[in-house]
């Protein structure tokens, strides 16, 4: 099976004010894979993720140079709101709007112009099922989302992202605040989502990266040190720094 | 797409609104300037700013604003002398000494004071304070600068109290705790540490109070006697810049020298309050950092 | 007792004295507020009755009521809100949600500060020259409302800004990350949650506008206008102006009538304040995050 590139960065440099956070990043991510990014704090992993859906620009001191391509289309030629429909993100801490579970998920379709009640109902149900949350909430869709547990809220966040129909889903250390059972549920969901979505996972937990991803990249201080098949990267890294990080000599 | 167009319209309106705010300030300045310049075409600016006689209906009319300026300054200084110590003391009490329930009541009362319309205070001045002062100080009339200063002090109190209280509460707890650790009493910590720390915020509050007092019209028009002569003591009638405009505008003919002179007075007021508020705001912003 | 102990005692005594002084000063600040209200109520009891509040004046103000003035004040308040609320909210939305940190934004913020410091009489002059003369609206409800509206801009803008800034940043991030546009984010994820703050700030600002005299002196106010206004181009009576005139310029009006007018004015202002306080408490209870 020929691997199709869905995301490609060319000489990407990211700056917050005078501080350079990502240096000369060149990598490719293939369609329908789960791509992991590991590395110690402040390596630029989150910055890379947020550069893909241009959320970095919410910070007024941000600037970048270089090109990013989504399925051969330069990101600069896509409007912000369309781009974020195609590339969704799950944040580290589950944040939900103070409205009902249903409305949290229906919000995405609403802002993209889908108003037909039946269509929205179907979208909400599908999204909740894909996030492995439907069974737990199907009888209380009108309850406030804030009443859910942390793990449920994070799955809600996944559902609302899926509801807008993205091509790529970004995970920014999304299990860092969750217990192992919730984490396991989410990891299961991610495996099921593979057939329809490309997923990029940033994590501080190397073991999670090893469990879930097919290919992995190691970032250190803004630079891409090594990239390759997960199994190979973890058992036989070619760069010493990768080896040191994975074995825990630093991090 | 219709959605895109309506969104474009609303975002343009939003940007326009921000712009309009700047426009209004310019408009006010421009309109004042325009009519003031009409005066300065026939009357020397120097005579206006430094002349000691305000006699708009004499032949020829004299438009020296020194008596008015001094009148404004006298009542303002008088008000500040009274309300700054009182306001800061009350702020200290509310912020550091009063128990929580009392604090709530006091702050509500101060808010009530802040909402009393100036014309009501002027009215109280006429029916009670003025006769009271006339009696107490054996004055020919109770309508003098002192009456104005007392009422203005009262009006400026909420501004000074609330900003000073914010400044005092904003001092980091660690400073106070450090003082306690060294054995200081609450008063010593308050007087020697908290107050000096809050001083820039308090000064900003005082400046805002000054700005408010200089710009006040109704109170001074009702109780200071409206006599546009250079005041010698605060116990005599005087006239402020604000009261001049309010009081004489109705008697002028549109387009006459007198009419333009009042706009020139307005321009002077605009500039003075502009400067005071600019300084106060810079102080406040620096204090907050 | 040791020297240390004596020093501690002395310090404690000084603290007690200092705190008592502070408390005394605060009393001096707070007591007059209650005394003023009591004084007004006491002296107006005789004249306040249903007729006073619902009837127009008769016999050159010596008899009858002040109904037209109450209506006039309410009409002006509504007009002020209609003109200043949309503009203020949109400007504040621009400042908080759209503006970048550049010269233009800083100019807008500076303009808001300036507008808040301009004396009310200068607004009156501006309103007279722009609305009454230049735009040929004449002394009218329209001119008066527009003048009061510009005066209210800084207060409502500031209140709206604070309300918008209090909405958690995460709401905006969530909305944008799902592909909503900026305006959609503001409309669905920010504005609904800022509405309480905007509402309370607006009511507060309007209560202040209701009590203002100087801006309406030359732009709308009439003294003896027994009939109610028929169009926005009419002049109108207003409570603050009415109080000012009967207190200073009309002889032989029974004093109780003046007190009664004063009472109605502060009752109206306090009522509006109360509404704002109740709103604030109500929304605080319903706080969703």
Structure description:
The complex is a heterotrimer of chains A (251), B (289) and C (289). Chain A is an alpha/beta fold and 251 residues long. In chain A, the strands form 2 sheets. Chain A has a 6-stranded mixed β-sheet with strand order 6-7-8-3-9-10, with helices on both faces. In chain A, strands 2-1-4-5 form a 4-stranded antiparallel β-sheet, covered by helices on one side. Chain A is 37% helix and 27% strand. Chain A is globular. Chain B folds into 2 domains: 2-41; 54-288, MetI-like fold. In chain B, strands 1-2 form a two-stranded antiparallel sheet. The longest helix of chain B has 39 residues, at 2-40. By secondary structure, chain C is mostly helical. Chain C has a single domain (68-285), classed as Orthogonal Bundle (MetI-like fold), CATH 1.10.3720. Chain C contains 11 helices and 2 strands. In chain C, a hairpin with a 4-residue loop joins strand 1 and strand 2. Chains in contact: A-C, B-C.
Summarize the structure.
The complex is a heterotrimer of chains A (251), B (289) and C (289). Chain A is an alpha/beta fold and 251 residues long.
Strand order of the largest sheet of chain A: 6-7-8-3-9-10
H and E string of chain A: EEEHEEHEHHHHEHEHEEHH
Second-tier CATH architecture of the domain at 34-42 and 85-247 in chain A: 3-Layer(aba) Sandwich
Report how far the terminal alpha carbons of chain A are from each other. Answer: 36 Å
Low-confidence stretches of chain B at least 5 residues in length (pLDDT < 50)? none
Largest sheet of chain B: 2 strands, antiparallel
- Biggest sheet strand order of chain B reads 1-2
The CATH class label of the domain at 34-42 and 85-247 in chain A is Alpha Beta
What characteristic shape of chain A results from the CA principal axes?
Answer: globular
Q: Return Rg of chain B in Å.
A: 23 Å
Given the C-alpha coordinates, what overall shape of chain B results? globular
Structural class of chain A: alpha/beta
Oligomer: heterotrimer
Number of helices of chain B: 11
Q: Most extensive interface, residues per chain?
A: B-C, 84 and 85 residues
Helicity range of chain A:
25-40%
Distance between the termini of chain B: 46 Å
- Rg over C-alpha atoms of chain A, rounded to the nearest angstrom: 18 Å
Instruction: Find the CATH topology of the largest domain in chain B.
Output: MetI-like fold
Count of individual domains of chain B = 2
């Amino acid at each position: 099976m020929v691997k199709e590139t869905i995301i490609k960065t060319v000489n990407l440099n990211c700056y917050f004010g005078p501080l350079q956070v990502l240096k000369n990043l060149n990598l490719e991510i293939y369609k329908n894979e789960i791509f992991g990014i590991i590395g110690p704090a402040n390596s630029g992993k989150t910055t890379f993720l947020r550069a893909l859906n241009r959320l970095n620009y919410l910070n007024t001191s941000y600037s970048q140079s270089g090109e990013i391509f989504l399925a051969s289309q330069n990101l600069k030629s896509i409007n912000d709101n369309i781009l974020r429909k195609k590339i969704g993100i799950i944040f580290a801490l589950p944040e939900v709007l103070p409205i009902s579970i249903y409305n949290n998920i229906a919000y995405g379709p609403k802002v993209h112009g889908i108003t037909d009640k039946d269509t929205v109902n179907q979208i909400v149900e599908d999204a909740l099922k894909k996030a492995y949350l439907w069974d737990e909430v199907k009888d209380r869709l009108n309850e406030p989302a804030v009443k859910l547990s942390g793990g449920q809220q994070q799955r809600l966040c996944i559902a609302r992202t899926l509801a807008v129909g993205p091509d790529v889903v970004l995970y920014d250390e999304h299990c860092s605040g969750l217990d192992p059972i919730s984490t396991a549920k989410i990891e299961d969901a991610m495996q099921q989502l593979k057939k329809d979505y490309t997923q990029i996972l940033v994590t501080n937990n190397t073991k999670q990266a090893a469990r879930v991803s097919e290919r992995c990249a190691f970032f250190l201080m803004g630079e891409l040190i090594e990239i390759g098949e997960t199994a190979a990267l973890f058992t036989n890294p070619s760069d010493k720094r990768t080896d040191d990080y994975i074995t825990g000599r630093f991090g | 797409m219709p959605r895109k167009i309506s969104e474009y319209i609303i975002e343009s309106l939003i940007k326009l609104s921000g712009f309009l705010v700047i426009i209004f300030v310019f408009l006010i300045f421009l309109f004042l300037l325009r009519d003031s310049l009409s005066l300065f075409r026939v009357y020397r600016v120097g005579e206006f700013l430094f002349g000691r006689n305000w006699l708009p209906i004499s032949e020829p009319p004299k438009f020296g604003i020194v008596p008015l300026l001094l009148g404004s300054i006298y009542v303002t200084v008088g008000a500040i002398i009274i309300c700054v110590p009182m306001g800061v003391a009350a702020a200290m009490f509310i912020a550091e000494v009063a128990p929580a329930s009392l604090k709530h009541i006091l702050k509500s009362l101060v808010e009530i004071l802040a909402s009393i319309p100036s014309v009501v205070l002027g009215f109280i001045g006429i029916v009670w304070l003025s006769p009271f002062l006339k009696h107490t100080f054996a004055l020919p009339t109770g309508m003098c600068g002192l009456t104005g200063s007392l009422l203005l002090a009262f009006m400026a109190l909420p501004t000074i109290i609330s900003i000073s209280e914010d400044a005092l509460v904003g001092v980091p707890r660690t400073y106070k705790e450090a003082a306690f650790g060294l054995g200081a009493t609450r008063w010593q910590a308050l007087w020697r540490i908290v107050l000096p720390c809050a001083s820039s915020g308090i000064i900003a509050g005082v400046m805002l109070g000054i700005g408010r007092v200089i710009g006040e019209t109704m109170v001074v028009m009702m109780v200071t006697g409206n006599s546009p002569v250079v005041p010698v003591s605060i116990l005599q009638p005087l006239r402020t810049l604000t009261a001049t405009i309010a009081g004489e505008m109705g008697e002028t003919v549109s387009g006459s020298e007198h009419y333009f002179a009042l706009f020139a007075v307005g321009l002077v007021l605009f500039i003075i309050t502009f400067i005071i508020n600019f300084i106060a705001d810079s102080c406040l912003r620096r204090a907050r950092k | 007792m040791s020297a240390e102990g004596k020093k501690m005692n002395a310090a404690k005594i000084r603290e007690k004295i200092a705190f008592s002084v502070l408390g005394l000063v605060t009393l001096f600040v707070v007591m007059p507020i209650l005394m003023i209200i009591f004084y007004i109520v006491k002296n107006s009891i005789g004249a306040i009755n249903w007729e006073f509040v619902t009837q127009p004046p008769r016999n050159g103000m010596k008899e009858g009521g002040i109904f037209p003035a109450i209506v006039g004040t309410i009409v002006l308040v509504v007009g002020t809100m209609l003109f200043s609320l949309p503009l203020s909210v949109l400007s504040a939305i621009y400042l908080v949600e759209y503006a970048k940190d550049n010269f233009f934004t800083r100019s807008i913020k500076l303009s808001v500060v300036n507008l808040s410091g301009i004396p009310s009489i200068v607004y009156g002059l501006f309103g007279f020259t722009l609305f009454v003369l230049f735009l040929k609206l004449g002394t009218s409800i329209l001119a008066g409302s527009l003048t009061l509206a510009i005066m209210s801009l800084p207060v409502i803008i500031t209140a709206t800004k604070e309300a918008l800034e209090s909405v958690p940043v995460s709401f905006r991030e969530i909305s944008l990350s799902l592909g909503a546009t900026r305006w959609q984010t503001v409309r669905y994820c920010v504005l609904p949650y800022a509405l309480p703050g905007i509402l309370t700030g607006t009511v507060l600002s309007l209560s202040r506008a209701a009590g203002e005299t100087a801006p309406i002196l030359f732009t709308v106010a009439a003294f003896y206008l027994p009939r109610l206004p028929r169009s926005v181009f009419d002049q109108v009576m207003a409570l603050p102006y009415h109080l000012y005139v009967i207190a200073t310029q009309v002889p032989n009006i029974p004093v109780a009538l003046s007190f009664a007018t004063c009472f109605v004015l502060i009752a109206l202002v306090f009522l509006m304040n109360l509404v704002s306080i109740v709103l604030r408490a109500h929304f605080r209870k319903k706080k969703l995050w």
